[in-house]
Design brief:
about 260 residues
């Protein structure tokens, strides 16, 4: 794979991942959406399908890492670090593009949710009318990035390490069965693992399990001109970056010890 293919593949695949993953969260939490209050199961399956779609699209270009923790785990497994920075750059840029597209797709719903107004025109217009909803506006950071239900640094970090360790170890061991990995079924299995992690381990922190997935959209949240959007919670932001990176590294190390 050329460096340009790696970068482009990761940009496209990660953008699709975040567009569909952030999109399902937006649909569930923004109160004027048709899927409002669909619940946690809808979110976990939506993220699984997002992984499935992004990985299928980008697999022929970059191998569809779509996650710096996966890149680290694979680099440890294979002992090759020379292309890691191309993967990281593509993943972060793709995540930011995907988050921006979520904002575009749900623009009117963000405004209505945060200001109790309904947008009549499109982005950049000022035409509004009073919405019928009476619920108070809620924060929308969760559409873009993760946050803990109980803020405990050690526990939150451990949760992200554990969840990412499971994900990356599953990805690494899929390669043991070469036929499974090459058939495309491996991508489906990874998507199902993501659903399983969300259902089993997602409750405490929202299961970032991907530094780019959290950091890129958090940057976009900080930059977007959303009224009453609240802060971007930068004091927590290091946990969904370092936790997954540590989890990916531990998975790569265990693979070398037990399976190599």
């Amino acid at each position: 794979m050329s460096n340009s293919d790696i970068f482009l593949g990761e940009v496209i695949g990660t953008a699709v991942l975040i567009l569909l993953g952030g999109g399902v969260v937006a649909g569930v939490v923004l109160k004027r959406s048709k899927s409002f209050n669909a619940g946690w199961v809808a979110i976990t399956f939506g993220w699984g399908f997002a992984v499935l779609t992004g990985a299928y699209i980008s697999s022929s270009l970059s191998g569809a890492h779509l996650n710096p923790a996966v890149t680290v785990g694979l680099a440890i497994k294979e002992g090759a670090w020379d292309k890691v920075h191309f993967y990281f750059a593509g993943q972060l840029l793709g995540a930011m593009i995907g988050a921006f597209l979520v904002w575009v797709a749900y623009y009117g719903h963000f405004i209505a949710h945060l200001t109790d107004r309904e947008i009549v025109g499109g982005p950049g217009t000022q035409a509004t009318k009073t919405a019928t909803a009476t619920d108070a506006p809620g924060p929308v950071l969760g559409v873009f990035s993760t946050g803990p239900e109980i803020r405990n640094t050690a526990q939150n970090l451990a949760t992200e390490i554990i969840g990412t360790f499971v994900l990356v170890l599953a990805i690494l061991t899929l390669g043991i069965n070469e036929g499974l990995a090459l058939s495309g079924t491996g991508i489906l299995m990874v998507a199902l693992v993501v659903v399983g992690i969300g259902l089993s381990l997602g409750g405490p922190t929202g299961y970032a399990i991907n530094p780019a997935r959290d950091l890129g959209p958090r940057i976009v949240h900080a930059l977007l001109p959303l009224p009453n959007k609240g802060g971007s919670d930068w004091s927590y932001a290091w946990i969904p970056v370092m936790g997954p990176l540590l989890g990916g590294a531990l998975a790569g190390g265990l693979y070398q010890l037990a399976f190599a």
